[in-house]
Each structure stands twice: as C-alpha cells, then as structure tokens.
Amino acid sequence: MKDVLIVTTAVNESGDQVSAPARSAIEFKNVICKIGSKNVLDNINLSFKRGEITGILGPNGAGKTTLISIMTSLRKHTSGEVTVLDEKLPVRGGRLRQRIGVVLQETALYEELTTVENLRFAASLYNVKDVKASIKNVLELLMLSDRANQIVRTLSGGLRRRVAIARALLHDPELLIIDEPTLGVDVEARHAIWSHMRVLKSKGRTVIVATNYLDEAQALCDQVAVLRTGKLLTFETPESLLARTGICLDVTCEDAAGQSITDAVMRVPGVLRVEKTETGLTVFLKGEQMSKDVISVILATAQIEGVRMRAPDLLEVFKSLEQPTGRT
Predict the structure, then answer these.
(1) Cα 261 to chain centroid, rounded
(2) Phi, psi of 206 (to 5 degrees)
(3) What does the alpha-carbon distance between residue 118 and residue 111 come to, in Å, rounded to a whole number?
(4) CB-based contacts of 61-65 (< 8 A; 24+ apart in sequence)
(5) Which of 76, 112, 125, 230 is 20 to 30 A removed from 328 (C-alpha atoms)?
(6) What is the CATH number of the domain that holds 172?
C-alpha cells in the first residue's frame, strides 16, 4: 500500500482548526449522519493518525457509536466524505474488512463454544492462512493461553472482552476499532486490556477507542476527539484537555463561607473558575503547583470543613469546553 502524506485536522464548533502533517488512517470531511430528522453527527471533520491510539470521548448519546458504525461500514453517513485506510466509503466487497478489526460493545461470542473454537470460527471467516499460529499468537498477546479450552460462558466479563479483542486481531489488521474496551470489567481486567492496546501501538498498529471514561483516554490515547450531542467540541491531546479544564480543589464549607472564598480566590492569578457544589465549592486551577497558595487564601478567608485535590471528571471537562472562565 502506497504511503500518503496528509494533514491531520479537526474543526470545533467555534471554527478553530488544529493541523499537523501526518499519515491518515481515517478521515471524516463535513460528515452528517441523520436518523429520522435528527443529526446524530453534525458536520464532523476529523482525521485519525496512523500508528497512534486515538480516543473518541463523550457521554452516552454523544455520537461515539455512530461514528464507529460509519467507519466500520455498519452505517451509512447522510452526507460528507469518509475515507478509511485510503478507501473512500462505501466500499464494495470485503476487501476493506480484511484490514480492520472491530470490537463492539456486545462481544457476540458463541457462549457454548470454547475460546479456541470461537477463534477458529472467526479465522475461517477472515480466511486466515496459518490458523494454528495466528490463534497461538493472539492467545499469548491477550494472556489467554490457559483459557483456550474453557467454555466462553464460564469466563468473567473481563476475559470475554479479551477474547473479543483476540478475535478482532486474528487476521493481523492494520486498524483496530474498539467501542468501550473496558465496559463491564473489573479494575484488574481494565488495566490488562490497556496494556494489550499499548502493545498493539508498539507494533505499529492504529487503534481507535470510544470511551465514556476520561482516565481511560488519559492512560491510552495520543489524541482525543470530544463529542457531545453529535458535535465535535475539540480534538487535542489528553494532557492539553486536562490542562484546559484545570486541577480541581473540592472545598467543603457552609454557603456563607463559600461566597467569601469565591470572591477571594477569583482574585488569585491562575484560578480558572469556581463552581458551587452541594457540599461547598470546586475551585479549578491552571496547575497543581498553585494549590498550596490557593489553599492558603481559602484558610485565611473563612472556616472550612475540608479540602482535597483531584483530577477533573468528564462532565467538568465538558463544562470547561462550553463555558468561559469565572464563577458558575
């Protein structure tokens, strides 16, 4: 396959554009997808770089699954242009499917068959040449060798997810697309799946991950596309996204103290905004190093019951993208 040099771009609602030279795995140009009269995706412009892990971040109903359904040819877009691995969609025949591995929210495994029987069946669908060696490789990669002969219905949710990922990797695809990779799995399995995805990146594979979890995007992704109600809010690194939102200081205090604290901390350079909460306030800071200074101001201003520092959650990230800085 001939290499193509393109420019990675993303356009947010304000018309801001981010660009950098890159080889593209997937491109969306002015893509609209309607279901009935509703725009499920609204004028999406995105380009996913090859050899990276890219996240699609957003709450339920944001359009993540629709975006994945389009790039995997499970759904047609209404207008615009979609290119996957240099093939303009829609593509006739199964040529493109042979180059892509897909893991959807539902694992769709044959529960009465063993792990290896599921993989053999999948290998037959993809016309895998050396079935025995390919199955051995994916079992080792996903650390499933000791589960090869276990009936799938007896496996835990995390192990089933790993079997589904193994199945998607059998034909050694150039591109792996995963919708909610750690849906319904425990913490240990979650970190194991993350580890496997990093291994794929180290082998030069392109991975697209749709997730509800900010920490998952932060742990895995080189870039994240943030969607909400079918619109692209931003496309940037997880680090810059978190820096824009800020470090959070949760302050537990009475309402009267909260007003005094808000007035005081908003005069401190580097305080992005203050939000009222059920138990007091959350103060958003540009950097962690500021926390001591801000806490000193808080303690000098009013009596509080407690304070703790934490990373922002997904809802707070959305607010930072949609609202100006200040008090809210």
Answers:
(1) 35
(2) -100, 130
(3) 9
(4) 61/229, 62/227, 62/228, 62/229, 62/230, 63/33, 63/227, 63/229, 63/230, 63/231, 64/179, 64/210, 64/211, 64/227, 65/105, 65/179, 65/210
(5) 230
(6) 3.40.50.300
Residues 266 and 187 in one domain: no
Buried b (16+ CB within 10 A) or exposed e, 53-62: bbbbbbeeeb
Number of neighbours of residue 1 by Cβ within 10 angstroms? 7
Residue type, 30: N
Contact 46, 10 (CB under 8 A): yes
Q: What is the band of 181 on the pLDDT scale with cuts at 50, 70, 90?
A: confident
Per DSSP, what are the bridge partners of residue 53? 207
DSSP code at position 170: T
pTM of this prediction? 0.79
Contact assessment for residue 186 and residue 214, using Cβ atoms and an 8 Å cutoff:
no
Supply the pLDDT for residue 20: 41
Gap between the Cα atoms of 162 and 319, Å rounded:
34
Task: Say yes or no: 56 and 203 in one domain.
Answer: yes
203, 63: one domain: yes
How, if at all, do strands 247-252 and 100-103 pair? unpaired
Closest-CA residue to 105 (of 170, 58, 161): 161
Q: What is the pLDDT of residues 47-57, one digit of tens each?
A: 999 999 999 99
Residue type, 139: L
Residue 67 near residue 176, CB atoms below 8 Å: no
Task: Look at residue 95 and tell me if it is in a domain.
Answer: yes
Check which CATH number belongs to the domain holding 274 and give it.
3.30.70.260
Instruction: Report the C-alpha gap between 163 and 155 in whole angstroms.
Output: 10
3-state secondary structure of 148: coil
